[in-house]
Specification:
Length: 111
């Protein structure tokens, strides 16, 4: 499996607008072969930003790369706009991709 993450440094006071962009977007992920799951994560807050990460799990790297080259990807990102007019971020999102080498899950826990 493959995990794709983007880290976002969101400016203080822009958290609600950032979360609204994600909550109201059309993702199209569920239509993609190899897509498994998506999470939007909120991390720690520092003096100059709040850290967020988007986290998707894919069957393999090829499935993720297929998503990034798809019309659905272009549509999803074209509509992920910010209505405030100002940038919500400090810099650009940082992409990180990981091949899953080992996994462990408790068998009686619901997802």
């Amino acid at each position: 499996m493959f995990i794709a993450m983007n880290r976002f440094q969101v400016k203080p006071g822009s958290e609600a607008a950032f979360e609204k962009v994600w909550a109201t977007r059309e993702s199209y992920l569920g239509t993609m072969p190899g897509f498994i799951e998506f999470h939007l994560l909120k991390g720690p807050t520092s003096e100059d930003h709040t850290l967020y990460a988007s986290h998707t799990t894919w069957a393999d790297r090829a499935a993720f790369e297929g998503w990034t080259k798809s019309e659905a990807f272009r549509q999803a990102h074209a509509r992920a706009d910010n209505q405030t007019g100002e940038s919500l971020y400090l810099g650009h999102p940082k992409f990180e991709g990981f091949e899953i080498i080992q996994s462990e899950r408790k068998s009686d826990v619901a997802a």
